[in-house]
Design a protein that fits this description.
mainly beta, cleavage on pair of basic residues, four-stranded mixed sheet, Immunoglobulin-like, cell membrane
Length: 717
């Protein structure tokens, strides 16, 4: 209610209202100033309203007082029930949990004013789900209320939770929600076989590795807690079978490890143990988490194919064996109770099988063609055996036939060798090691022998040293080889084997002579390398040879011209009586021919001046240390001088006195001085030529000529 002090109650004052909700939620009596709510108010929608009021004059419409502001607050009442905003709830708790195990916490919200009264104070309770679970009234935490709740007994629980305001007092509003609780599994149950004995029937023809039956142990647990492992307890018959677990059905699958034979054993008995893989230590006190059952297997008799006595047959036969020769036999039997005859035949797959035949009744294998080990050393084929009573029942076996070798090929040098020998090789030096190969299949212990052929064993060039280990060495027999004399040597080598009959062959080894250094390293093996310098091409060598030939021609021409010029000069001097010198191309009798001519002019003038020997006095007897052949031995010189004397005697133009002939006069000015022994008359006695005998056999003749011997003047002519 609004009232102004200026209002005298005569109707001259008018009240107005403005602000939140004016005219829509609230209205005012213009005369009395009473404020009324024209609709229901909801505190949860708008808890307060701010309004403005004013008093104005009815006649002048002017305000009598300033505008005033006031707040209208909505007072709360308990008109909202608690609500579970997150419901319904889903929770889980392990089975066999103890009392008070935490499950879930729920929460309800009340929209009423929590600061005014108990309208928003909520209390929780369980309406449905007792006595299994309990809830805290204030916090809303749900816990287990019974021990050892078993999932295998009941797995799902639905709990109805109530939240009530006003502290749970009478007249309070309430809200509910549902909590679905599931008991999760723990491994609290061992596997159990539903029966103690399992009977299985298995045909004896079952293949190894095939499944012959299934058994199952029951485990009420779930998931990995229900996984079962099966094992065969060692005992009678267990070694023939194996058992595995089917991961989808948790069944034990029994498989065959070895073949069954009804005629050998008709029944097998063994035990199978089932146990959990994942154990929970909290439940060990319950007992062992495994169970055992007995499995009995009865073997069923079946009509089986024949059985060979061996899984593989190996036979041997010599090559070139006559056609039709029996080399072996295979045997198969029908082991069934009513034994049947067996027939044999070859499994034709390729042309190789045509080399052999088999007797259908006896199973003997014989050759059908001539065999050659060098063509095919081994044959591999299959033999099929079938029952006469049931030809569809067959069995197969492999047969291997090895062809034995007959010594029909001689041994040969295994590889072509490039053998070389150094020019400076010494006797006994190994220049090559050779090996041999034989096309025949060499049996154990076969040996090859090496030797030179008969025509080569007499030549002193090379020899063969047999090492007796299927190898041999080529050794030299000479001290050095010359490429200029012979570049290639062909050495025939005979190689024999030790098989019967003995086979041999002659192999020629080519040996090339090469130039080597002092260490034996080969430098060149071409014969042209003896004459051609290294690094020059053929064109360059031809050019060098042409230049040498041209130089030789020039030298020969020059010498010929010099001789012609000298001859003309000497011939013109014949007209001079005072110096009538006749020129001869030959020397004459030499320095010992002193009786026919005066050879004083032939001596070196320089030496003559130094040795003033008078020509009119007979010289004393001298002892010459050099050996001079007797004059009578020099028949060529004597004949030459006599011929010249006779020519001058019969020449009418010759002077009546002896003419002087000059032989090989050197003249003066020689740097090397005289090389002739004519002027060494007085000095040669002091020379000793005994050292020539120490220079070897090549200087033997000179040593004999200049050896020490007494001089005999009577032999001088």
């Amino acid at each position: 209610k609004l009232h102004s002090d200026l209002d005298k109650g005569v109707g001259t004052v008018k009240y107005t209202l403005s602000g939140d909700g004016a005219g829509t939620v609230f209205t005012i009596d213009e005369t009395t100033g009473d404020i009324h709510a024209i609709r229901s108010l909801d505190r949860e929608e708008k808890p307060f309203y701010t309004l403005r009021a004013q008093a104005v004059d009815v006649d002048t419409k002017k305000p009598l007082e300033p505008e005033s502001e006031f707040i209208i607050k909505v007072q709360d009442i308990n008109d909202n029930e608690p609500k579970f905003l997150d419901g319904p709830y889903v929770a889980s708790v392990p089975e066999m949990s103890p009392v008070g195990a935490y499950v879930l916490q729920v929460k309800a919200t009340d929209a009423d004013d929590p600061t005014y009264g108990n309208s928003a104070r909520v209390v929780y309770s369980i309406l449905q789900g007792q006595p299994y679970f309990s809830i805290d009234p204030k916090t809303g935490v749900i816990r287990t209320a019974l021990p050892n709740m078993d999932r295998e007994v009941k797995e799902q629980y639905q709990v109805l939770i109530q939240a009530k305001d006003m502290g749970g007092q009478l007249g309070g509003l309430a809200g509910t929600t549902t909590v679905n609780i599931t008991l999760t599994d723990v491994n609290d149950n061992p596997p159990r076989f539903p029966k103690s004995i399992f009977h299985l029937k298995v045909p004896e023809t079952s293949h190894v590795g095939s499944a012959i039956g299934r058994i199952r142990a029951v485990d009420p647990d779930f998931g990995k807690n229900a996984e079962i492992e099966y094992n065969i307890v060692p005992g009678d018959g267990g070694n023939l079978f194996d058992i595995t677990t089917d991961e989808y059905t948790q069944e034990g699958v029994i498989k065959l490890k070895k073949p069954l034979d009804f005629e050998t054993k008709k029944a097998y008995t063994f035990k199978v143990e089932a146990s959990n893989l994942h154990l929970d230590h909290r439940f060990h006190s319950v007992g062992p988490f495994k169970d055992t059952a007995t499995v009995k297997i009865n073997v069923l008799d079946m009509d089986e194919p024949p059985v060979f006595s061996k899984p593989l047959y190996t036979m041997e036969v010599y090559e070139d064996t006559p056609v039709g020769t029996i080399i072996g036999a295979v045997t198969a039997q029908d082991l069934d109770a009513g034994s049947s005859s067996v027939r044999y035949f070859m499994d034709w797959k390729n042309d190789v099988d045509s080399y052999f035949t088999i007797d259908a009744t006896e199973g003997t294998i014989a050759t059908n063609e001539l065999l050659d080990r060098e063509s095919t050393a081994q044959y591999n084929f299959s033999i099929i055996a079938s029952k006469v009573s049931n030809p569809l029942l067959t069995s197969k076996v492999n047969v291997i036939i090895n062809v034995l070798d007959v010594n029909e090929f001689p041994p040969e040098i295994s590889v072509p060798y490039e053998t070389s020998v150094c020019e400076n090789a010494k006797p006994g030096q190994v220049i090559q090691t050779i090996t041999a190969a034989d096309k025949d299949l060499s049996p154990a212990g076969q040996r090859f022998s090496f030797k030179l052929s008969s025509e080569a064993s007499n030549k002193p060039n090379f020899t063969v040293h047999d090492y007796r280990n299927n190898t041999a060495g080529i050794e030299t027999r000479r001290n050095g080889y010359s490429r200029r004399q012979q570049e290639l040597y062909f050495l025939p080598i005979v190689i024999e084997d030790s098989s019967y009959p003995v086979q041999s062959s002659t192999n020629t080894l080519t040996i090339r002579v090469c130039r080597c250094d002092s260490d034996g390293t080969i430098q060149s093996c071409n014969v042209e390398a003896i004459f051609l310098p290294v690094g020059l091409s053929t064109g360059a060598l031809i050019a060098i040879l042409l230049c040498i030939v041209i130089l030789l021609v020039i030298v020969v021409l020059y010498v010929a011209l010099r001789r012609q010029k000298k001859k003309d000069t000497l011939m013109t001097s014949k007209e001079d009586i005072r110096d009538n010198v006749i020129h001869y191309d030959d020397e004459g009798g030499g320095e010992e021919d002193t009786q026919a001519f005066d050879i004083g002019a032939l001596r070196n003038p320089k030496v003559i001046e130094d040795n003033k020997i008078r020509r009119d006095i007979k010289p004393d007897t001298l002892r010459f240390t050099r050996h001079r052949p007797p004059a009578e031995d020099n028949t060529d010189i004597r004949d030459f001088i006599n011929q010249r004397l006779q020519e001058n005697d019969v020449d009418p133009s010759a002077p009546p006195y002896d003419s002087l002939a000059t032989y090989a006069y050197e003249g003066n000015g020689s740097v090397a001085e005289s090389l002739s022994s004519i002027d060494s008359l007085t000095t040669e006695a002091d020379q000793d030529y005994d050292y020539l005998s120490d220079w070897g056999p090549r200087f033997k003749i000179l040593a004999d000529m200049f050896g020490e011997e007494s001089y005999n003047p009577d032999k001088v002519t």
